[in-house]
Amino acid sequence: MTDAPDLDKITLDSIGPRAGMKWGTTPQGIIPAWIADMDFPIAPEIQSALTSRAANDLGYPTWIDQPPAGPLSEAFAEYMELKHGWRPDPGHVRSYTDINQALQILLHVMTSPGDRVAFHTPGYYPFFETCAEMDRPLLPIPMIPEGDSWRFDLDRLAADLADGRCRVLLLVNPHNPTGRVMTRAELTGLAELAERHDLLVLADEIHADLIHGSAEHIPFATILPERTVTLTSATKAFNLGGIRCSAIHVGVPAVRDALDRQPTHIYGAANLLGVEASVAAWRHGGEWLQAVRTVLDRNRHLVAKLLPEGVGYRVPEATYLAWLDFSALNLGEEPADFLLRDAQVRLSPGPAFGPGGDGFARLNFATSGPILEQMLNRLANAITNRVKQV
Asked: Where is the Aminotransferase class I/classII large domain (predicted)?
């Protein structure tokens, strides 16, 4: 078991070469804080499950013909009940390689080109790409800064839905990139609009296990079960981005029927090691996750403490992503480009997250205290030097 202090032993000198995209595509000397992978070691329980399986048998699993998602179904249902007080029907669970694939399949079987998709913006950028590629125009729901958090305008959304062209509410909660956790009142308001306008709700809840402080994750399926498909995975909370395994809970009978009418192998299947890792995470990874959440909770406040004056930041209620506002600094260029060059820190550019992203950049703080401090000191020095030159 890796405890919280051990996670802080990771330094730039000790992290060593890594094969993953985050470090493996970043030139030496630059600190990567862009893609949403953690720097922490994988939970020992997950490592053990994977090595045991690899050492024993990588042949066809016994559950390969067990509908609908093999052992993933029951493990998912157990975990949701334990962590979030929601007991989904295991028989309504389906597995895919990741949430992006699941989203594309759902849009393909349940909507037509030209149907609009309501989506909180700024938002997770692969979803923009999916909607553009599939000709499902976006109906933006702007996230509005308010005090130390974010909100959105339900009345405006209601007016925008009046033309009847929107077929889907794509709900990302907890929200990426702002880290906002939606309240019951907000979710109830969205559910009422979904009912009134006959919307299918696709609820991406992949960050649900990364809640901080007093915030509470409320599965949307507990509010509007008959219209909700829940999309999730163990990959985000347990740092397993490369295992290619996700679970969706299909609470809508018409969607289950549409999916089950598809040819059996047309979309592929979650792989053996992906399922093994996910089941191990959900059943045995709790202590590791709690240690990581302790570090992330500290880190979200450390960002606020060490950011230089002039950078806007609302401490996220969930995730390990800081949505930073550089617009007041008048940098004269894209903030992520400036920081990559002058601070040697790689962030995700704000404009990639769609409307509301200009002037922003997203910082991943899922790393050790020493690395985060070094990263933030570099940002502060680069910005201080730029301000002196103006």
From this structure: 72-368
Gap between the Cα atoms of 191 and 154, Å rounded: 11
Amino acid at 69: A
What pTM was computed for the model? 0.96
Count how many Cα atoms sit within 13 Å of the Cα of residue 117 in the half-sphere of its side chain. 30
Greatest Cα-to-Cα distance within the chain, rounded to the nearest angstrom: 66
Please give the torsion angle defined by the CA atoms of residues 30, 329, 178 and 100, in that order, rounded to the nearest 10 degrees.
-50
Residues 200 and 171: beta-carbon distance below 8 Å: no
Torsion-angle region of 174 (φ positive above 0: left; ψ -120 to 50: alpha; else: beta): beta
**Residue 349 CA, distance from chain mean position:** 16
Q: Which domains does the chain have, with CATH numbers?
A: 4-42+286-389 (3.90.1150.10), 48-284 (3.40.640.10)
AA identity, residue 287: E
- Tens digit of pLDDT at every position of the chain (390 positions): 344 448 999 999 888 778 899 999 999 999 999 999 999 999 999 999 999 999 999 999 988 877 678 999 999 999 999 999 999 999 999 999 999 999 999 999 999 999 999 999 999 999 999 999 999 999 999 999 999 999 999 999 999 999 999 999 999 999 999 999 999 999 999 999 999 999 999 999 999 999 999 999 999 999 999 999 999 999 999 999 999 999 999 999 999 999 999 998 899 888 999 999 999 999 999 999 999 999 999 999 999 999 999 999 999 999 999 999 999 999 999 999 999 999 999 999 999 999 999 999 999 999 999 999 999 999 999 999 998 886
Do residues 86 and 222 touch, judged by C-beta distance below 8 A?
yes
Tokens encoding 281: 């995470």
CB contact burial 335-366 (16+ within 10 A = b; e otherwise)? bbebbbebbbbbbbbbbbbbbbbebbbbbbbb
Query: Any residues with CB less than 8 A from the CB of 54 and at least 6 apart, and which?
Result: 273
Which stretch of DSSP H or E encloses residue 200?
A: strand 200-204
Output phi, psi for 233, to 5 deg.
-170, 155
What do you get for the CA distance between the two ends of the chain, in Å?
A: 50
